[in-house]
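#dry-run=false #mode=assembly
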Amino acid sequence: MTTFNIMVGEAQGSVPVTILRVEGDIDASTHKTLQDKAAEVIEAGAKNILIDLGGVGYMGSAGFRAIHAMANMLSDDDSGGLSKSSHLKLLNPTEAVNRVIKTLGFDVYLDIFQDRNEAINSF
Amino acid sequence: METPLTSIENRVEILKKCSFLSGLDASVLNDLASRAETLRVGTGETIVTRGEVGSKMYFIVSGDVRVHDGEVTWATMQSGEVFGEMAVLDSEVRSASVTAESDSLFLSIERDVFYQALANDPGAFKAVLRSVLEREREIVNEIKTRSTKLLAFEKEMEIGRRIQADFLPKKIPVVENWEIAAWFEAAREVAGDFYDVFKLQTNPHLAIVIGDVCDKGVGAALFMTLFRSLIRATSLYGCMDSVVDSSAPEGEAGITGQVLLNSLYTTNRYIATTHAGSSMFASVFFGLLDPESGVLSYVNAGHEAPMIFRKGGEVELLDITGGVVGLFPAANYSVETVKLNPGDLIFSYTDGVNEAKNPDGEQFTEDRILQMAMPKDNNTETFLKIMLEAVLEFRGEAVQSDDITMLALKYLQTDPAA
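#status=ok
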């Protein structure tokens, strides 16, 4: 079985940003761990989350569902999510994950960054 | 630290709590109690490992344990319960693993010690046998109850499967100069894939839809019926409050564009708002074909790119023109058009094809689809059959992990000399 880890970090841009660095595949067996971790940091007060996907070799539909659920958890507007999420962003997806992001069109809904500082300052 | 095991009396009390030994004489219990060993384990430590040969049974004095096979938990046990007795009685390997859920204390008894103690008391064997049979009877009853439930469940699933089949087209429309074939194979009883082919009511266009709802099983199947019905209803009967504005193209393409966009915007917005909490989505390719001119207007919402095999041998991919449907209410889609000519074939499919895995875990891939495709000399039915056989051969002994759906349309050449 492959390992799956999430490291939690904090950074200060214009606002505080919680960074979840994921290591391992995000699939049907691991997506809940990610979602639960997000719920935990949100419960603890996190308002902005950056998911660092640099260590994720594969992300299946379960992973995308988890990310959507996280965007919903962080949503504070009344428009029902009519615009790009301003509280959830993605960092440094691997080539394989980026291909699926593009195929599913997730880049239309979420900001994706290659540069960590740029990502942190975008919130 | 004071343990409750310092006296034989305390140990006998622990052993007696187990129905397994409750029928034994005091002398036998005393004998067992005096020869039992104590074992302390910390949280997370495994006491018994599935598949290994074991010779001890364990009585839980304090703490609690999880009986499991890897990640799957069969039962949890607390103080007063016993585990590992089966391997002691029949010398077979352990049937499950047992891991401490908290710091725990056990009394353990070796097989030889157990049988020696019993040998001193003829009544003891009977008592143990009675206890074992009682447990067996309980297990048989439990199996009976579960079998009945399972049968009822299977019946429900079969009904679900039949109802779901009703959400696929029963008959593919006959269209002059066009040949259309479809293949659908669910990986489980019910599926998340769908396809649809139907004629619009207000103009001569033929609607072709192929979609794949994320996830599998019943949840995906429920959403499949929703996606399919919304797309069909909104494109056939329009929608009271059109969400499409000036973004649709002008002219003839504008009419089909309006239908496509209206249908997808409405479907997306409905599911993304009404079912926001479910985070369910579908990739959808939706095209409207003018059978006369061969012009196909389409939206590809996050779906595997359909392929056009031109008569001359070239291949074109109809890449995505928007994201998946059902997640984000503000999703944007755009309409593209492509012209099919006599002799051309268009092939669309779901990821059960390109992501079919062989026993080594390798995927079939889009490249293999392109290699295997023989559009020139075959009708659509044979084309799909060849593709399916290639996927099945590639998959070999590996299990089908996803639904397989394929849809092919061929523009026939009216002039036999062409």
